[in-house]
Amino acid sequence: xxxxxxxxxxxxxxxxxxxxxxxxxxxxxxxxxxxxxxxxxxxxxxxxxxxxxxxxxxxxxxxxxxxxxxxxxxxxxxxxxxxxxxxxxxxxxxxxxxxxxxxxxxxxxxxxxxxxxxxxxxxxxxxxxxxxxxxxxxxxxxxxx
Length: 145
Known about the structure:
about 75% helix
């Protein structure tokens, strides 16, 4: 099925994606009262795991990050927990490359597909493990701006 000019189709798709993210962000901002989840929300390690799970389920780190930013803007999630959740979203996004590798390779990824998946996962894990213990100092530094 021909949809016309690929440039126009791409731009229309990006506009629709942007509108969807804005609507999603507005909905997340309305969820400002999450007192029943305060134990999890104020614990960066739980938020880190939540970021991984959320991104694995949605298969979209953009959507996860948008949700996290909207919750921080509404005051529902403190900045250190949000930083941990974004680090978790970076780990969760590696699930997409593993899923693609499994589908392409008819099972466990092989060859270059495996090496790319391992590099992507390894770099994101290294970054998260390195930065996760320092989310509070990072949040204090970012709060200056």
